[in-house]
Amino acid sequence: EPEVTQTPSHQVTQMGQEVILRCVPISNHLYFYWYRQILGQKVEFLVSFYNNEISEKSEIFDDQFSVERPDGSNFTLKIRSTKLEDSAMYFCASRDRLTYYNNEQFFGPGTRLTVL
Amino acid sequence: KNEVEQSPQNLTAQEGEFITINCSYSVGISALHWLQQHPGGGIVSLFMLSSGKKKHGRLIATINIQEKHSSLHITASHPRDSAVYICAVPLIIQGAQKLVFGQGTRLTINP
Questions:
Q1: Nearest to A104 among B43, B45, B101 (CB)
Q2: Cis check: omega of the bond before A109, within 30 degrees of 0
Q3: How far apart are CA A27 and CA A94, in angstroms?
Q4: B71: which of A32, A66, B9, B32 lies 20 to 30 Å off by Cα?
Q5: At B80, is the secondary structure helix, strand, or coil?
Q6: Which pLDDT score, from 0 to 100, does residue A99 have?
Q7: A96-108: buried (b, 16+ CB within 10 Å) or exposed (e) per residue?
Q8: Per DSSP, what are the bridge partners of residue B83?
Q9: B79, B109 in Cβ contact below 8 A?
Q10: pLDDT (tens digit, 9 = 90+) per residue, A1-52?
Q11: Which residue has the higher pLDDT, B93 or B83?
């Protein structure tokens, strides 16, 4: 069964460093998402991506964040200069386009980012 | 304001008990996700439903679109059902869909 994969599973970095979180969505899916979950809090939306551009982003998704689909299979989230408060679990999700309103998003296993 | 509210926040039960987790939402469209998050943090989609009821094994999800309310039931609960259960509603803004999540219900099933 096709699945969304994410690498690495755990990333530890120093404050101020750049990190790139990688996702491989399900191959025929067209919409891609990043969500994050700070420890003990609820999952929150970061950004959605369609047709090689951002379709919506949250207030959290400031200039330190960027997304890219560099090669048609990977979908990356870059944080340019990490802050302590970026420590969280980051989830990638994808969905297809069959029924726009009600189709399901499929989640990756997450990347746990720890900023020291 | 919380657009998606779950109750209870925490639930502890004995193995074999019938479990109900509730979700009410004030935004979104006519569909709702139920997700399961295990202690390791990964999220698994359980159901997406837009009307009536869906059943998968011992899990049953119901939704009432008019009342903007959904319930997740677990029959004959087992310790391996222990997890955080999250409901999420798709919200469409300017043509883009995003999920709005509830805060989760932490379920613990004791043997």
A1: B45
A2: no
A3: 9
A4: A32
A5: helix
A6: 61
A7: beeeeebbbbbbb
A8: B107
A9: yes
A10: 789 999 999 999 999 999 999 999 998 898 999 999 999 899 999 999 988 8
A11: B83
User: For position B104, what pLDDT does the model report?
Assistant: 96
**CB contact B92 to A (< 8 Å):** yes
Range A76-101 average pLDDT:
88
Q: Which residue has the tokens 């296993």?
A: A109
Residue type, A52: N
Is B106 near chain A, with CB under 8 Å? Answer: no
Asked if B53 contacts B60 with a C-beta cutoff of 8 angstroms, the reply is yes
Average pLDDT on B97-110 reads: 93
Q: Residue B91: pLDDT band by 50, 70, 90 thresholds?
A: confident
User: Which residues 17-76 of B have a C-beta within 8 angstroms of A?
Assistant: 29-31, 33, 35, 41-45, 48, 50
* pLDDT value of position B72: 98
Say what the pLDDT of residue B57 is.
95
Residue in chain A nearest B47 by alpha carbon? A104
Q: How far is CA B49 from CA A30, A47, B46, in A?
A: 21, 24, 10
Handedness of CA B64, B81, A105, B89 (dihedral sign): positive
Please, are residues B26 and B80 in contact by the beta-carbon 8 Å criterion?
A: no
Candidates B82, B92, B86, B88; CA nearest to B105 is B86
Return all residues near A63 (Cβ < 8 A) that are at least 6 apart: A80
How far CA A3 is from CA of A93, A94, B41, in Å, comes to 10, 9, 16
